[in-house]
Every structure is written in structure tokens, then in C-alpha cells.
Design goal:
alpha/beta; 9-stranded mixed beta sheet; 12 helices; 18% strand; disordered N terminus
Length: 360
């Protein structure tokens, strides 16, 4: 990242932004008349009805409760929560955390690809077969080792949160109910994040990938700059892309999707051990609680799509898509052999084991 100019601007504006707004959250558990001993800021780009927002909210509320061992009392920690892009988009949030300007952020893992190519592995197409395999990687040794890589960037990766799989949504007058191959999606302009892997992957499965900021997406669809984008069903419904004209939601399930809680490393390392322990406990609770919420959220989102007349298109056989996107995985392997040996090959081992188990 090119930090110098951004840093000067961010430092100049940050105090003004934070003094003027505080984001949504449920009520604090701070006890009346007691001053919290640890106060820090947590920010994300999302709005409450996106439901991915709940990662931060559950984490905040859990952290402000008493710890299981009683070493941290209720109200001893206070989290000041900024959401809905008040401090900027996800890339700006990551940069502000890097620069010691804000203590903790929630971002999509794809934003980390600007720092470390290892995180691009999570954006590779069709690397995960199902949610069980996905969470095994994120919450296990592989995910832990990936989080550990952030330390050299003055960041502390605290945890992943699975948000399932990403699909295509767009506006089209054609019948897309019988998608059989990437050629059926040819001609569509689909917004993607600014990740080279995501760009190559979407291009490989038919559409033309167009990287634009998330904040510009609704208007870009409405004015025809792009036909649509790729994301999960709750995000599609939360941001009302039907009002921009999107009438197709095609279950390509081409990427796994995950968010992360990240802290500034210098700040985190300087905390009392009991606070570091409490923060990690809250991450574990949030992972479990968010998983339950997310499953119901997906069901509700698909039901709402149907009621609004969105065509939900199932891809019965993804084999042609998997085959066309295979070159993206091989290109990554050649370009980043060290990261591939450390992470990609191990994830593929988990996938192969999952395939064998599914055959039984």
C-alpha cells in the first residue's frame, strides 16, 4: 500500500470524524458510576441489516460482560463502535489500524491481499466444497497460521468469521434459470473487489470483472456501468440491489467468503494479559454465535428474494466452472510457490479428504 499521503490526511481528519459520530450498537454494560479501565475503538464498513455487522456487535457486547473467570468485571472494558463506513471503506480501515490510528477493525479477508499474497488463497475459485471444509480451514491450524502472518505488518489477526459463499447477482432480460457453462454468463459486467485473484477468477467463469469501490456499486448498477456484482444473499437484500434493477441471483458459489477481526499489534501487545485473554475469549464466543445467526439469515434472505421476484438460479453441475477456473489456481501456485506450499496445498488436502468422505 502507498501509505504516506493517506496517513497525513487520515491523522488530520480522524479526530474530527470520531468526535462527531458514534455508530450503532446495543446498550453498553458499563456499570453506572464506574469508569472503564480499557476503552478502545472498533470500526467496520457495514450497516446493521447487512447481518455481517453482527460480528462486531456480538464481539462488543460479549467483551463488555464479565469474563468467565471473573478477572475482568462487567463494564471494565468499553468498546466505542463506529460502523456504516463512518471512518471509511475497508481499505481505509485497514490502513488506519496499521498506522495506530484505530485499535481494531472488522474487514473482509480480501482486503488483506493488498498486504500479503497468502490471503489471496482464500479468494481462489472453487477451493472449498462446503461450509464444513471452509470452517475447518478458517478455525483450525491453517487459519491460525494465516492470522499469524499479519504480525509483520503491525497487525494482530484475532479471528476469522465465515460468511458462506459468494454468488453472482445482476440485471438481465435473458432467462438464466438453466446456467450450464461460463459461456452462459458471457457479456455480463460484474463488480469485484480490488483483488487480482478475484478479477481473474470472475473472468474465468464467464463475466467481465470490473473492480470498483463497494460504496459506488448501487449507482454503478443503476446507471449501467456494471450489470451486477458478486456477494452473499444477505448483502444483496440488505443493500436493496433489486431497486438498482438486479433481477437474477445465480448460485455459482465461486468464492468462499469470510470476515476478520484485526487489532493494531503494538496496541494489543501493550495490553495487560487479562485483557488480551478476554478479547480472544470474546472472539471465540462471537464466532459461535454469529454462525448460528448467519445460517438463519441466509434462509431469510432467499425467502425475501423470492417474494420480491428475484430469479434464484441454481447451477446443477459446476464442473465446467471448476475446470475453467483451474488455471487461476495453477497461476497462483507458480507465482507464489512458498505461500502455496504453506497454505494452498494444505487446503487442497482438506478438500480432497472432504471429497472422499462425500463419496462414501
Amino acid at each position: 500500500m502507498n501509505y504516506s499521503n493517506f496517513y497525513l490526511l487520515l491523522v488530520a481528519l480522524f479526530g474530527t470524524v470520531l468526535s462527531g459520530c458514534v455508530g450503532s450498537s446495543t446498550s453498553s454494560t458499563e456499570l453506572p458510576g464506574e469508569e472503564p479501565k480499557l476503552v478502545f475503538r472498533l470500526s467496520n464498513e457495514l450497516k446493521p441489516d447487512s447481518y455481517v455487522w453482527e460480528v462486531s456487535n456480538i464481539f462488543k457486547n460479549e467483551l463488555e460482560k464479565e469474563s468467565p473467570d471473573g478477572s475482568v468485571k462487567a463494564g471494565e472494558i468499553k468498546v466505542v463502535f463506529y460502523d456504516q463506513g463512518m471512518i471509511g471503506g475497508e481499505r481505509q480501515l485497514l490502513e488506519s489500524c496499521f498506522f495506530d490510528v484505530i485499535e481494531m477493525v472488522q474487514v473482509n479477508s480480501s482486503v488483506l491481499t493488498t498486504l500479503d499474497p497468502a490471503f489471496s488463497i482464500l479468494d481462489l475459485p472453487y477451493l472449498f466444497l462446503d461450509e464444513d471444509q471452509h470452517t475447518e480451514v478458517l478455525y483450525g491450524e491453517i487459519g491460525g497460521n494465516m492470522l499469524g502472518r499479519l504480525e509483520k505488518y503491525n497487525l494482530c489477526g484475532l479471528g476469522f468469521y465465515s460468511t458462506g459463499f459468494r454468488n453472482l447477482f445482476y440485471k438481465s432480460s435473458k432467462d438464466h434459470s438453466d446456467i450450464k457453462s461460463p459461456s452462459d454468463l458471457s457479456g455480463l459486467k460484474i463488480r469485484v473487489m480490488e483483488s487480482p485473484i478475484m478479477i481473474s477468477s470472475v473472468n474465468s467463469i464467464g463475466p467481465t470483472a470490473t473492480p470498483i469501490p463497494f460504496s459506488e456499486l448501487f449507482q454503478s448498477i443503476k446507471t449501467g456501468v456494471v450489470d451486477g456484482a458478486e456477494n452473499c444473499a444477505p448483502i444483496f437484500m440488505s443493500y436493496k440491489y433489486t431497486e438498482a434493477g438486479c433481477n437474477q441471483f445465480t448460485l455459482t458459489e465461486h468464492f468462499a467468503n469470510q470476515h476478520m477481526i484485526i487489532a493494531n499489534k503494538k496496541w494489543f501487545d501493550g495490553l495487560d494479559e487479562k485483557y488480551r485473554k478476554r478479547i480472544r475469549e470474546a472472539v471465540a464466543v462471537a464466532q459461535n454465535e454469529f454462525g448460528k445467526i448467519w445460517n438463519k439469515t441466509l434462509d431469510d434472505a432467499y425467502a425475501a428474494m423470492g417474494s420480491e421476484g428475484v430469479n434464484i438460479n441454481h447451477v446443477k453441475d459446476k464442473t465446467p466452472f471448476v475446470e475453467m477456473s483451474g488455471s487461476v489456481i495453477e497461476s497462483f501456485r507458480k507465482k507464489y510457490p512458498e505461500e502455496s506450499a504453506q497454505f494452498l496445498d494444505k487446503i487442497i488436502e482438506v478438500r480432497s479428504r472432504t471429497e472422499k468422505e462425500n463419496e462414501v
